[in-house]
Amino acid sequence: MKLTFWGAARQVTGSMFLLELDDDYRILIDCGTEMARDREESAEMNFRERQGLLFPFEPSLINLVLLTHAHIDHSGNLPNLIREGYEGQILCTSATYSLTKLLLMDSASLHRNKLKAIHGSRRSSKRSHQPPPDTSDMYLERHVDEAVERFVTIAFQQRFKVRHNMYVTFIPTGHLLGAANILVEIIEENGQTKRIGFSGDIGRHNYPLLPDPAPFPPVDYLICESTYGNRRHEAKGKPEDILADVIKRTCIDIPGRLIIPAFSVGRTQALLYTLNKLYSQESIAPIKVFSDSPMALQSTQIHQKYVKLLNADAQEFQEEHEELFDFENLHYVENMEQSRAVSSYHEPCIIISSSGMISGGRVEEHIRKNIQNPYCTILMIGFAAEGTLGYRLTNGQKTLRIGNKEVPVLANVERTDVFSGHADLDDLLSFVKQQKPTQLQKLFVVHGEYDTMLAFKQTLEQEGFGQVEIPKKGQAYIL
């Protein structure tokens, strides 16, 4: 049996692992989009890219895909996999199916807009000698439709028989609605069973809406994410207490406005639920809340549909109040005209809009219109990649270019990681320590920055776990 790491190897994004059984049955675990290219890639990958091929393997030879969760860095290349010849099923949980369809359709819409812009620029610069941009990885809505037809949903904690010698189990991990760690059991010819665990992205404990990661059984091989493998969450206290303090200081003590850039899927729902709890408890004076993201509304409806997958507190709140995400002062912004009107709203208010990194989306316009407003506070609640507007603001940039002018940043910028959906070092160690060091033959560290992986590897070794590997992209191991 062979395991090859084709994504999230010494980088955070693009999760994609290929497990090949002895009888040549091939399983792909996740098929994510890479947000950034590794500097160090295998010769095989470089060769295939020069040939214009999207995958470092032949998609038509894959027999099965297992999907841990819906985020694009885990699911975003599924339409391309099918377009390139994959004909099998995609197994995931039912909530992951619903959210993946939503996110892939959004990606297809972005691709369509990019393609229109590229074609327009080609027509306006026919004499240009610049090579045309590569669009081979851009898919459209029809390709997403073809992909979602392949999905087969599996319930959590159901030991599902894939074939005569293989079982898979999806085990809840928090992080995102429907997200799972996956247990793969392979029964070999000698009757022995090899157990392999794929962590997906691990959630944190005591997160709004989502249950804590469920216990994961002992395995022989473990593939573990390491996004926050060298740090601990800074925020102390309950999310509702931290959010109430920010609202009081920014919207009540002064007649100001609070802008919260938030991803539409997962993060916005955690925010709305926390606000609903605050208002229902009359912990703070009711402030007008605008949720300005069409995708956030769709995602919220999906979360409401799968309320039974949420944590006990959320289910009790739903039973008592009948609504998790809807309250008297909440207004969902439906179109651009309403969005522009929100930017001109003069009363104290809270604006929740995507994207969370302030890299595209309606939130950019809200930020630009309020960047010189000293009565405005921008609350960053998640990671912002280098090069994004969110990164620059979080790191204290004093001016911002708007049009042809450089304008001062007069708005207040704050940050909190209390709404981060990723496990930190303590949560990751809690996950790994469920394993028996004497049984675990190898522990593969993936899905993280290389320096973070090195630090996490050192911590694991100090905890008594030997045989920790940090695979390179394209590196294969015999299990």
Features:
479 residues, alpha/beta, Metallo-beta-lactamase, Chain A, Rossmann fold, seven-stranded mixed sheet, 22 strands, RNA endonuclease activity, hydrolase activity, Beta_Casp
Q: What's the arrangement of strands in the largest beta sheet?
A: 6-5-4-3-2-1-22
How much of the polypeptide forms β-strand, as a percent range? Answer: 15-25%
- Oligomer class: single chain
Average pLDDT rating: 91
**CA distance, first residue to last residue:** 5 Å
**Helix segment tally:** 14
Helix content: 25-40%
Profile the largest sheet.
7 strands, mixed
Q: What is the tally of beta strands?
A: 22
**Helix and strand composition category:** alpha/beta
Specify the overall morphology.
Answer: globular
Question: What is the CATH superfamily label of the largest domain?
Answer: Ribonuclease Z/Hydroxyacylglutathione hydrolase-like
CATH topology of the largest domain: Metallo-beta-lactamase, Chain A
Q: Uncertain regions: pLDDT < 50 for 5+ in a row?
A: 37-51
InterPro entries: Beta_Casp (IPR022712), MBL (IPR050698), Metallo-B-lactamas (IPR001279), RibonucZ/Hydroxyglut_hydro (IPR036866), RMMBL (IPR011108)
Protein name: Metallo-beta-lactamase family protein
Domain Beta-Casp: 268-393
Keywords: Hydrolase
Descriptive account of the structure:
The chain is of the alpha/beta class. The chain folds into 2 domains: 2-118 and 139-231 and 421-478, Metallo-beta-lactamase, Chain A, CATH 3.60.15; 239-415, 3-Layer(aba) Sandwich (Rossmann fold), CATH 3.40.50.10890. 31% of the residues lie in helices and 21% in strands. The strands form 4 sheets. The chain has a 7-stranded mixed β-sheet with strand order 6-5-4-3-2-1-22. Strands 7-8-9-10-11-20-21 form a 7-stranded mixed β-sheet, with helices on one face. Strands 14-13-15-12-16-19 form a 6-stranded parallel β-sheet. Strand 8 (166-172) and strand 9 form a beta hairpin. Helix 4 (94-124) packs antiparallel against helix 5 (141-148), helix 4 (94-124) packs antiparallel against helix 8 (294-305) and helix 6 packs across helix 7 (267-280). The radius of gyration is 23 Å and the shape is globular.
